[in-house]
Structure formats: C-alpha cells, structure tokens
Amino acid sequence: MFDVDGTLTPAKQKIVKSFAKQFAEWSNDKEVYLISGGSFVRICGQITPSLLDNMTAVYACMGNAGYIRKKDESRAWIKRYEHTFEPPAGLIEALEIVARDSPHIEKKPPHWEVRSGMLNFSVVGQKASKAHRKAYASYDAEHLERETIVKKLRPMFPEIDFVIGGAVSLDIFEKGRDKSQVIREHFKDLSKDVILHFVGDRVEHPGNDYAIAQLVLEHPNGHVHSVKSWKDTAELLKSI
Ligand SMILES: [Mg+2]
C-alpha cells in the first residue's frame, strides 16, 4: 500500500519516469494499492497508465472513493463507492478567517475545495502557482503554521478531524473517514499470514498517513515505512 504525494511522486506532480519503470517491474508479482488524499483524476495524471495497470485498486480522497477495474477485457477503471462530506455549521467561516488572518502574504483563493468525503484547505489557495506553493511550504516549515491551525480548529469541531497532507494543505473530514477506513472496510478479513507493507511520507502524527499506519502495525505481519521522497521509496523497493 502506497501513499502517492511525497511517496511515489513529488507533491501534486508526475511520477519520475525511471522510478515508474522500477515500480512497475517491482509490482508485477504483488498486489499493490494506492491510497491518496488526491482525487482519482489527479492520481491518473500523476501515475503513468502502464503503471496504473499494475495496481489492484486505487483509493482516492483519503479512501473516500474506491476504484477497481472491470473484470472484462477492457479492464477499465470503475468507481466502486464514493462518500460525501457535509461541512458542519461554522467550518467554512472558520477556515476563511484562518486564511485571512495568516501572516503569509501570497494567497490565491479559493482556500478550500470539497472532494469525495473530505475538504481540502490551504492558506496559499487552490489557484496558487508552483512557486507560490513552494514559498508557502518553506514558510510553513519554518513557522509550523499548519500545526497551529490544526490545534486551533480541533477543539472547535469535535466531530471533525484535521490532518496535515501534501506540501501545503490540510485534509478535513468526519472522524474515521481518513486513510485508515481502507483497512477497516476493505482489509478487515485479511489473513494473518499476508505480509502487508505501507509506505508513506506522513506517518507521524498529525500526518495524513498516521491513522492508517497505526492499523497496519496492528496486523501481525504489518510493516510501516516512513519515507521523505520517492527516492527513499525507490531505495526501499530494492529490499522488499
Ligand atoms: Mg503523502
């Protein structure tokens, strides 16, 4: 099981060709699942079609939308399920205030986008260029603004979870509707003998891989690998 952004690709960008080739060869004799905070459309733009063909299933939007392939010759991808997200009263207003009050200057609204079963928020905004996003990522690394936002909003919305995802954003969803739902709902009958690996770049709390990593570790043959970029993943694949 692989996270996508920061694990297989640079955040929101395409997979590097040489790594796509290595990953495709490695995945030939395995069951491989992608579990991303991004939408299915975005994942399809990031992962090469031939590599995507090797994936058993793709869980998009933190596992709030699941995709499998038709069993017929077309092997076309089909959506198996999709959850929705209704922002609770006051959430959007609170996010707008957080974005407005941030001392970071470059902002390209809108700051939030509703996806399947979740909402994605960033101070820098959905319309920010790559350079703006990069500038905000360094600002956040220095000031830990996203952590401060999470600490502020959590007590205001006890039924909602806020996690740091990608390079600049927060993923927001009903408690439990994070990547861990993939394990709870689709792998609950997994045999103890199966060797299960999860690879992610945000397995530490409050990262968006933390909850799923905790459940993987509960499996007797579960292993969690923390990587800093696809380069670490490329090295790791040589030993799995
Ligand atoms: Mg990631």
Task: Write a brief structural summary.
By secondary structure, the protein is α+β, with helices and mostly antiparallel strands. It contains nine helices and ten strands.
Question: How would you explain this protein's 3D organization?
Answer:
This protein is α+β, with helices and mostly antiparallel strands. The protein folds into two domains: 128 residues, Rossmann fold, CATH 3.40.50.1000; 84 residues, Hypothetical Protein, Haloacid Dehalogenase-like Hydrolase, Chain: A, domain 2, CATH 3.30.1240.20. Helix content is 33%, strand content 20%. The strands form three sheets. Strands 1-2-3-4 form a four-stranded mixed β-sheet, with no helix packed on it. Strand 5 and strand 6 form a beta hairpin. The relative contact order is 0.16. The structure holds magnesium ion (MG).
What key attributes describe this structure?
240 residues; alpha+beta; Rossmann fold; Hypothetical Protein, Haloacid Dehalogenase-like Hydrolase, Chain: A, domain 2; four-stranded mixed sheet; four-stranded antiparallel sheet; 10 strands; 33% helix; binds magnesium ion
The residue-averaged pLDDT reads 95
* Secondary structure: helix percent: 25-40%
CATH architecture term of the largest domain: 3-Layer(aba) Sandwich
Cα distance spanning the termini? 12 Å
User: What sort of overall outline do the alpha carbons produce when their principal axes are compared?
Assistant: globular
Structural class: alpha+beta
Low-pLDDT regions? none
* Strands ordered across the widest β-sheet: 1-2-3-4
CATH class of the largest domain: Alpha Beta
**Using DSSP, what is the number of strands?**
10
User: Which value, in Å, is the CA radius of gyration?
Assistant: 18 Å
Largest sheet: 4 strands, mixed
What small molecules does the structure contain? magnesium ion
* Individual helix count: 9
CATH topology category name of the largest domain: Rossmann fold
Compute the number of structural domains. 2
